[in-house]
Amino acid sequence: MNVRIVIALLVVAAVTAAGCGTSTDGVSKAKPGQTEVVVAFYPLGWLAQQLGGDDVHVTNLTPAGSEPHELELTPQNIRQLQEADVVLYMGHGFQPAVTAALEASDATKIDVLAAPGLHLEAPVATGARQGDRLDVDPHVWLDPVRFARIADYVAGELRMDPAAVDRQLAALDASFRGGLADCVRTDIFTSHAAFGYLADRYGLTQVALTGLSPEAEPKPRDLERIAKQARSAGATTIFFETLVSSKLAEQVAREAGAKAAVLDPLEGIARERLDDGVTYLTVQRENLAALARALGCAAA
User: What is the residue range of 269's domain?
Assistant: First the structure.
């Protein structure tokens, strides 16, 4: 069914539920004076909270621990978009349902991929069988420098001060530069082509099993090719992510004589980890430590 038809039906369902007064799901929990900010997925929520502090209430459309690609909206999500003051989202096909639903929202809509200076790259060609509809690689939040440009753009649109978050991201960038400055290897083998911007920033090369969508299915010959490439490069680690199966990475790791380990694309954080205080910065530092170990960096 066409995405816009589905969204129209959900809008009707959301309005009907609201009119009958049968549910309070999706009603803004913002306190008086707070700006209700709805975000498409976790990194944008972290950014909004850092920029707005106590002046904002942030609602994430993607449930904690869920993979955000191809998010399917519920009637509750539609109501959240309708009641939002501000919506932060990603265009270019990252979450088509969100983009379509925004046509019925009066909120201030900010496509973070419109930020200047991002220098967006084309999708990585991997040979995997996949349904990617993205015309750019959207994983800009993994590069602290690009993410800071997004912070500045959003802050400018909302008349907020980005200084504090800019300092945090500058410190993170410095940590990556220092931690990955002196390494034995520079190829990072990943299950999902999410780390291209980060790799480019710090002089690394991403070799991905699948494309921009983590649900993609690589062909057997591509897995064999990557396993051979990993052996030739002396790779010790094949990385997988937290929100999808590790099966492919483990298969390639066995064939390459390497181990499988987590490199988190930060598309979402499990509820248990959020409750433990884990944030964007926590996971990025974990990623840095994992990369330094895998690449034989002096800082490991």
Answer: 182-294
More confident residue, 71 or 273: 273
Q: Which has the closest alpha carbon to 182: 300, 70, 78?
A: 300
Instruction: Select the more confidently predicted residue: 17 or 119.
Output: 119
Q: How far apart, in whole angstroms, are the C-alpha atoms of residue 207 and residue 195?
A: 9
Overall number of domains in the chain: 2
pTM: 0.87
Contact 100, 3 (CB under 8 A): yes
Residue 190, beta-bridge partner list: 208, 239
Quickly state the pLDDT bin for 189 (edges 50, 70, 90). Answer: very high
Domain boundary among 167, 199, 215: 167
